[in-house]
Amino acid sequence: MRRLRRNLVVIAGALTLAYLILPNVIVMVFSFNKPRGRFNYEWQQFSTDAWSDPCGVADLCGSLSLSLQIAVWATLGATLLGTMIAFALARYRFKARGVVNTLIFLPMAMPEVVMAASLGTLFLNVGADFGFWTVLIAHIMFCLSFVVTAVKARVMSMDPRLEQAAQDLYASPLQTFLRVTLPIAAPGIAAGALLSFALSFDDFIITNFNSGSTVTFPMFVWGSAQRGTPVQVNVVGTAMFAVAVLCVLTGQLLGKRRKRS
User: Is 179 part of any domain?
Assistant: First the structure.
């Protein structure tokens, strides 16, 4: 009982982590399944056919490529705009600062369907053609708040004396920003960028309202689920999960090396 009490927090954390990872493990296992019918819901036979031909289903790789393109561009746009907004809110005082802070957090607080419908109405009013660009703009607007939150928290925790020391050593404002400010804020910027990429790639609701005839990977999965989800969808999900885990492990290893050095 004493050991159980001492390790209660660790056990609870391990159980929570296992609960979160269990769906990914199921997706991984069923990526090696060979179903007899259209639905990949019951284990039938071990097979690597889906891994040998991940693009065997029509439009799967096309929708995946489109989702990756939108996610990359949305990440770049949201990170650039969000970083500038975060620095402005954390470093400068202006009249509408409180209003901007409130508006920035609204997309995170309101239901996603509300923002999706609002953006769709906006595009209809301006006469925009629904497609790649409307989805990209909508994703940038959706991811912007998360980037601002991550970068702003990092900037507000920075010690301003470091920048003052650089200026005392005759560094120009540009040199101070590139060599002192930006490296310190880089973890927050990277966290916001990774979060933006994950949110954009995984988004369905906002995309569904603003895509028109454009089909991204989440929309392909939703459409195929009605007819029978192919095993290749599990293959793509497993590959994306493996890439995400590798990115996290790489970041942890680099962080440990920096602390040792």
Answer: yes
